[in-house]
Specification:
- This protein has a single domain, classed as Sandwich (Jelly Rolls).
- The longest helix has 10 residues.
- The two termini are 14 Å apart.
- The strands form 2 sheets. A 5-stranded antiparallel beta sheet has the order 1-7-4-9-2, with helices on one face. Strands 3-8-5-6 form a 4-stranded antiparallel beta sheet, with no helix packed on it.
- By secondary structure, it is mostly beta strands.
- The chain is 10% helix and 46% strand.
- It contains 1 helix and 9 strands, in the order βαββββββββ.
- This is Cupin domain-containing protein.
């Protein structure tokens, strides 16, 4: 698992993030989760990328919990059991991709 925090002085631009993912050989798509959305423990058969554009999402992997905000990126290896829920009262917009 790898978390990359946004450290640029400007808000993330969805097209910029998409272009980075395209350059990495992935085909990203936009996903929106409304407040209260919760995904229980699950895993994927592929390496998973989640890149938050706006809003905040809390994730749990094993005993570790963390919140991703605008510009933060999560790379999860295939088979990693995790859960996720929207943090706060605004929708979360993020890019999804897999390798």
């Amino acid at each position: 698992m790898k978390i990359t925090r946004w450290d640029k002085p400007y808000k993330p631009d969805i097209e910029e993030l998409k272009n980075i993912l395209y350059q990495e050989g992935t085909y990203p798509f936009v996903w929106i989760d409304e407040p209260g959305t919760y995904y229980g423990n699950h895993s994927h058969a592929f390496n998973e990328i989640r890149w938050v554009v706006s809003g905040r999402m809390r994730y749990g992997v094993g005993e570790e919990e963390f919140v991703l905000g605008p510009g933060d990126r999560l790379d999860l290896p295939a088979g990693t059991v995790h859960w996720a829920k929207v943090e706060g009262n605004e929708p979360v917009v993020y890019l999804c991709a897999s390798k």
